[in-house]
Each structure stands twice: as C-alpha cells, then as structure tokens.
Amino acid sequence: MLEPLSERLRTLLLELGLCSAGDLRHCRRLVRRLTHDLPAFDSVWLDALVQIGRLTHYQARVLESASPAEIRIGPCVAVQRIGGGSFGQTLLARPVGSDDLCVIKHLAASDRLSTETVERLEKFVMSARGFNHPSLAPPVSCFRVEHQLALVSRYVPGSHLGELLVRRGRFPAAVVWEIGRQLADGLEMLAQRGLTHGDVRAANVRLTSAGTAVLVDAGIRPALDPVLTMHSGLAPERYDGIAPELIGVGGQPCTATDAYALGCLLWQLLAGRPPFPGGDPLVKLAAHQTRTIDDVRKWSPETPAPLARGIERLTSRSPADRPPRFADLLEFWGLPSRSGRRRLATFRRRFDAPARSVAARRPLSALTRWLFIAASVFALSGGVATLVNQGARNVALSWAAGISQGWQWGAQAQAPTATARQTVSTTASFTGAAADYAPLPAPDRHGVVHLESSGPYRASDLTVVGELSIVGGDTATPHIVIGDQPFRLCAETVRLKNVRIVTPIQPAARSSNLRALVRVEAQGLSIEECLFDSGGSIGTATANASQPIFAPPTGPALIAWKLLDTGDHRGGTATIRNAVLLGDGPALYLAHAVRQVNCENVLKVGPGPLVQLAATPAAKSTWTLKLNHSTIRAAGAVVRWVVPADQAAPAKSSEPSRGTIEVEAADCVFDIDSPHAALFELAGPQPLPEWLRSLRMTGEGSVTRPMLEVAAWVSTLDGRLTTLEGIPIELEGLIADEFHFAGEFPDRPAASEVHDSEAPRRSATPPGICAAALPGS
After folding, report:
1. CB neighbours of residue 291 within 10 Å
2. Under the phi-then-psi rule, with left for phi > 0, alpha for psi from -120 to 50, and beta for the rest, what region is 572?
3. Is the per-residue pLDDT at 652 higher than 70?
4. DSSP state, residue 428
C-alpha cells in the first residue's frame, strides 16, 4: 500500500495553499512510479509536486529541511530565491491565499540589525507609505520574523542593467538618455518626501518589458551602512557611484549623493565600464575623492552634448556644482515620454533573442527609390546571373558532393571573380619537387615520430596500434609538406606537437583529391603548438548591396577527423592548444558528431568556418565546442552545420530526432566576414531554420562586431546565403562592440592581438589570443 504524505507536511501544504487535496491525489500514480516497492518518503511526494508544477525546487528544498515552516515569512510564503548577500537573502514570495508576487528582503545579519538600524528602516517605510511612481519600488512594509527583519517590496520583473550591460556591451545614447529621465523623475518625487535612495547602481535598476527603468531597494543600504568605508565589506562594484562626501567623514545620503550616483550609472552605461574600474575598494574610494571623472565623450564620442553636460554636472566632485533638484535636470533633459518608453521596450526585447545591432535607417526619397529599382533590375539581368553560374554554384555543389560521399570531400571550387582577397602563405619557400623533401621517419616502438630538424619532410601515411605522436624538436620547428594527397594518420589517439603542416600548391593548381591537409581516423585528437597553412587566399570579400549574397567557396579542410568507432562513448574528444590555422577551408571538419572539441589560444584566419560539422548529434546527446582566449579573424562561421540530405525534410514527430550543439566561449574574439558569413550557419538544399533551436552559446568576456549576422542558411544548390532572424537561439554573454587588431594581416600572430576594445572586460587581459605562445610569433 502506498505510504501517504506525513500529516504535518500535508497540513502545512494545504494551509499555505501550496497545493490542494486534488493535487495530492493526482500525485499518487507518479509517487508510485517513483518509489516502486520502496517506502514513499516525504521527499518523493515533494518531488512529484515539483514535477506537476505545484512547487518550485526552492520550496521543495525548504519543505524537506529540518525546519519546513520557514517557508512562511509572516503573511507571505516564499516562492524562489532571487539573490542575497552578507545582510541576508532576497526572496520572491506571494501573500498566503493570493497569486500576486512580491519581493522580500530577509535581513538576517544580526550584527547590523541594531535598534538604530531597525528604527531607520521602519521610519523610511512609514515615510514612503503611499508612494507611487513607475520608476521606484521602495519597501511597502516591514515586520519582524523571530529575530530577523523582513522588508516587502513590489515585484519588478526584468533583468537589471548590470546584467544587460555584460551581455551586450555599452548602451546607445538615446536609451541611456531615457533611462536617465525616468530615474531622475522618480528620484525627484522621492526627494519631495524628504527621502533618498542611497544605493543607485546598475544592479538596482531593472528594465521591464514595457520600457520602464525601475529603481529597487530604496533606503535599505543607507539604513544598514550609514557611513561607507573600505571596511564595510562590500563588493568593489558597490563603490562605483559613491559620492566623495560620503567616504569616511560621516556624511549622510542626500539628493546630491543620489545625483552623483545617477551620473556615474549613466556614465557606465554609455562607456561600458565604471568611471573608475578595478577590483580594489581602496583604489575606488581614493579615486572618487581625488580625481575628476572624464567627459563621457572621451569613451563614447557619439553621446549628444546635452546628455554629456548633464552627466558632467551630476558627477562633479563638489556637491554645490551638482543640480540642487532633479527637477532642474529634467528641465534641461526633458520629461520621460511615451515614445521614450517605446524605445526602451524595443531595446529590451533585443535581449530576449540573439539580436544584433541594427543601424538606424532613414526613409529613401522617391528619386533614390527609382534609382535603386533601376540598378536592381540591371544587376538581376546580368551580373548576378554570372556570379550564380560561375562561382557560388560550384562551391555549393562541392558541399553537396561532400555530404553524399560521406567521408569523402567534394571537388574544390575556385574563388568568384567578383571577390577581392589578399593572399597569405607561409609555404613560399617550399617550391622544389616532392622528391627533394626528407622522408618522414617511422614511429618508434612507442608510436612516436621524432622530428629533430626543420626538414622539410614529405608527408606519408602513418598507421599504428595505440597512440601515434608526431613531435618536433626543441631547437627547430619541423615542416611537413603536403602534396596532392592528404596526410593520413590512423591510430587510437593522434597527437601533434610543435610541427608545421603546409602545402606549396596554390589554389588554382590544387588537385581534386586534396580535400584536407590532414585526415585523422582516431578516437582522440591532440594538437599543440602547431601551424596549419593550406596556402589559400584569405581576406575580406567585397559586398554589393544590390546583389544577392553568396558564401565564399570553401577550400580544403586543415584537419579532417573521423572516429574509428562511433559506438565507443569514451572517445570523441579533441584538444587544440596554442595553434595557428590559416586557409580558406574549415579549420576542423568533423565527419562524426564527436563529444567535445576544446580550443585554447587558437588563431583561425581565412573565410572558412572554424568547425564544419557534417553529421547530426544523436537524439538527447550534446556536441560541445569550448573556446578559450581564441580569435577567428576575417573568417567564416564559428560552426557550420551541414544538414544531411536524408534529414533535410522536417521531422514528423514533435520530438526532435537530433541532439544539441553547445558553444562555450570565454574571452574570445569573433571577427566574422559579415555579410558573407554568420556566427552560425546551416547548409543544405532548403532552409530549415528550426534546426537553430538545437544551438546554444555562451560567450562570457567574448566580443564580436556590432553588425554581425547571428545565423544564416547557405544553400547547397546555388551557394546563396540567407540571413535567419527571429529564431530563439540561446545566446548569452557575447558583447557586440568595436575593437581593433594590432596590425593588418597577413602578418605574424601578434598582428591579430586585440589592442583597442571598448567592451567590458572580466580581467586586465584583453580578449583573444596571446601571440607570444603561438608558433610563428
């Protein structure tokens, strides 16, 4: 017989309205399936309630703890934990018997809850009673729970500005201006009651989907820490907007200190970083006391003069030079407007999907429209047809051939005549006959090929049992030269270290058999301190807005990898570290959906994709690409996923027959050759944008160009590239901002280091490669 839920827990659930008796009856079958012949503990019942959506995971954890009654906080019941710090935790809650949500600050730090602190909080709540402004959410009630204190505020859905700033970089000036108007309007109404916020910063401003910037936690921080010093134990970012007169001299928060904090916040939104960045509280405090904040136009030149002058007044070190009232600032800037809220709502919606920056477009005049139509008709009748027939169709057919032949690659196509490119090659000195090159030594009994001299060596196929290693000497970097056939390596694990693999054959003279420089058949792959150069043409293609866009032709892959045994779940991992990949083909071609590819300090230059996946991950499986401090420059997609011809038709069942692709990038630089390439590309005979739902990417600390296309479809029929928009790819953390390389390519790896980027950094190290650790530096 099924053991019921304990009476104590059942009574608590029903009393708080967390579930009904009908919900418990509904869970009986699920509990029976979860327990089989075991006793039905309370935790099993709680898990069943979570699965049917009656409890959150947080509620289940509290209810199965030693003190389940703690889920009730005064007249409210906790729903979810949404934050916390040294003073306690922040909970999403709802009143008992109601579905309305609220936020509870549960203050549990006994050393800060002195009688004076409680009195300050209660006085603020009493003074703010009845306050109603869309841009401020002060506490509405304050009550004790045993030896703790709870503050209740209205719930403001939406991400805070600090999170949005990290995800997409600095904000447009028009957006910042409207945020400043809204917050100043709310702070003015608060000041009219003789109250101050005291903690104006990015993490305390939430941007709602309706286009309203809302300040939360008003009055709480000044009550807990009326005097801020470096010994207050706060995180460094809490000192980003502290007014000089508050630092260790007994100053009290007032309208002037809120004005200073608001100016620092708006400065940060425009510049993408705080006025005084760093991780040392003492340095920040000293800077606010002794230094003048720069004109924001030094970091954000497009800032309108009225906005810049207003921020300059707000951030003045002298309180007397700041606006005495926020109403004076609004007279200068203008009041919040409905059009401004619409602008913020549009800006906020871009964070709900992998949106890209869109340049403002002015409507065309009638004369311009007629000239554009005439030019389009001319292009469609002549030039475009030539490009389709000669260039793009060739490369598309080569992809189709590669798919149909499985492990074989299709014939290579020549570059379209309409594309202007620069040529980079490290193989110019290898012009002799293949017979002049030294033969590649045989592996020793441990499967290691030792290359003590620079060679050059003539590539020859190698097959061993176990691990195969090709290792260059300490005093020279060996060159292995590829002819008209790929360098085939077959072993359980293949390892390459400190070698250069190049081909002297120019694109026009390539054999159709050279579909990859290195062809690996192994369960594992390791590449370290290596350089691969296919001798192809790399650079930036020209674009004509009046013509369709085609993907550039793809040359031979630098590395092609096929698993020996797809059923071996222990294999399928590749590591590429401190490597340079040059050429117009994919850097890594995957014939199978392996488990994971790791790239650390890798430079990829050339129009081909970083990874071309010619297989589909099995259902409920995940293929992972991890990138760390890597740079792809003037290149194609990070991942080009080829839709197999036999899977091109949409699946009839609602359950996807494919797995997922996860890209985890940290501190990387993505210089995609847009509009001829996108961050992600699908290739196949017909567009299937729903496949993008299987893609996820995180890009913490990584930067890309503002006008980057996020996703595109490349037709294997004619090579046409079509942008895919409105597909909810899970894309988090990637920053779209301008950056500059140290030099023009082709050049040494040091030229591809980023030396000028306005994007926020997680550390002092810029994103992208460290050239000193790369071959050829």
Report:
1. 12
2. left
3. no
4. T
Rounded to 5 degrees, φ, ψ at 223 are -70, -35
CA angle 37, 41, 42 (to 5 degrees): 150
d(CA 277, CA 240): 8
Residue 517 has a pLDDT of 94
pLDDT at 230 over 60: no
Instruction: Give the pLDDT confidence of 574-608 residue by residue, as tens digits.
Output: 999 999 999 889 999 999 889 999 999 999 998 88
Helix (H/G/I), strand (E/B), else coil: 484: coil
Give dist(CA 71, CA 62) in Å, integer.
Answer: 6
* Strands 422-423, 438-439: pairing kind: unpaired
d(CA 758, CA 738): 7
In angstroms, the CA 195 to CA 120 distance is 12
SS (H, E, C) 47-89: HHHHHCCCCCHHHHHHHCCCCHHHHEECCEEEEEEEEEECCEE
- Going along 552-606, which residue ranges are E strands? 557-562, 573-582, 588-590, 596-605
Assigned token pair, 710: 């996020």
Confidence of residue 406 (pLDDT cuts 50, 70, 90): very low
pLDDT in tens, 237-293: 788 888 988 886 667 889 999 999 999 999 999 999 999 987 777 788 888 888 899
DSSP 267-310: HHHHHSS-SS--S-HHHHHHHHHH-PPPPGGGT-TTS-HHHHHH
Distances (CA, A) of 61 to 34, 44, 58, 74: 18, 12, 5, 19
Radius of gyration (C-alpha) of the chain in whole angstroms = 31
Task: Compute the C-alpha angle 608/739/736, nearest 5°.
Answer: 75
Helical spans, DSSP H, in 695-749? none
DSSP secondary structure string for all residues of 446-458: TSEEEE-S---EE
pLDDT in tens, 505-550: 777 777 777 889 999 999 999 999 999 998 765 444 455 545 677 7
Please count the CA atoms within 13 angstroms of the CA of 718 that sit on its side-chain side.
Answer: 14
The rounded distance, in Å, linking the Cα atoms of 516 and 409 is 8
